[in-house]
Specification:
This protein is of the alpha/beta class. It has a single domain, classed as Vaccinia Virus protein VP39 (Rossmann fold), CATH 3.40.50. 42% of the residues lie in helices and 20% in strands. A 7-stranded mixed beta sheet has the order 3-2-1-4-5-7-6, with helices on both faces.
């Protein structure tokens, strides 16, 4: 099976959106891990006066993590799937959150403009056709000194971690998803992870894209060695606020 890309992938997420929240809720630590990754950005003052881009917001789990940790920030949440975005936008949100339908590759066309103080991207980069181009866009959207947080399935490179990922995907996630009619998307999920960068390779990709202060931080539980938080910054001096 080849990877799903662009419109085909967005359509698969549209179809899966109706059951997506229930599936991720069954993943131990899913929401807590997102909040942990947001905290690792190290943004001050509960986000007061800050603009944050939630890139690939899905049904809003990453948006909720941002609002939980940074309740005073202004959040622009973007996703390529109209179905996922509708479910995100239909949830109750405090002021300061707006949703935009756009692929990560075409943010300017959708009116998404920087500078942002931070960009947070959860489970996004292995799903884009050209991650280096998206990283270049993200860097341009950040203000000097602005921070990037990436929360992503990136295997450590150890055989045991790949084996755990395959066991969970094929033994649990794919059978349930197939019953819901979303088998192709979750087969894509398995393949997209094993075919994407290891954690070390993604660290190098971030540095080569012009970011500094790059760190890869593991997450606890069964996802140790499978999912990581990456933090980085656009070089330059942050403006005092």
């Amino acid at each position: 099976m080849s990877l799903l890309r662009d419109e085909e992938l967005a359509a698969a997420f549209d179809h899966a959106s109706r059951a997506y929240d229930a599936l991720v809720a069954a993943n131990p630590g899913y929401h807590a891990h997102l909040r942990r990754s947001v905290r690792r950005l190290g943004l001050p003052g509960h986000g007061a006066g800050l603009r944050v881009l939630d890139l690939g917001c899905g049904t809003g789990a990453s948006t909720a993590a941002l609002r939980s940790v940074l309740p005073a920030a202004e959040v622009t949440a973007v996703d390529a799937s109209a179905g996922m975005l509708r479910r995100a936008a239909a949830k109750p949100w405090a002021d300061g959150v707006r949703f935009v339908h756009a692929p990560a590759e075409r943010l300017a066309e959708a009116g998404v403009r920087g500078p942002f103080d931070a960009v947070f991207a959860a489970y996004l980069f292995r799903n884009v056709g050209d991650p280096d181009a998206v990283l270049s866009t993200v860097r341009a959207l950040l203000r000097p000194g602005g921070r990037l947080g990436v929360h992503e399935f990136t295997l450590s490179g150890r055989r045991a971690d790949r084996a755990v990922w395959t066991l969970v995907s094929r033994g649990v996630v794919q059978p349930v998803a197939s019953l819901l009619g979303d088998g192709p998307l979750y087969r894509h999920l398995w393949r997209s992870v094993v075919g994407f960068d290891t954690a070390g390779a993604f660290e190098r990709r971030l540095r080569e894209a012009g970011f500094d202060g790059v760190r890869a931080l593991p997450l606890p539980g069964w996802q140790t060695g499978i999912t990581h938080t990456f933090v980085a910054r656009r070089p330059g001096t942050e403006v005092e606020r």
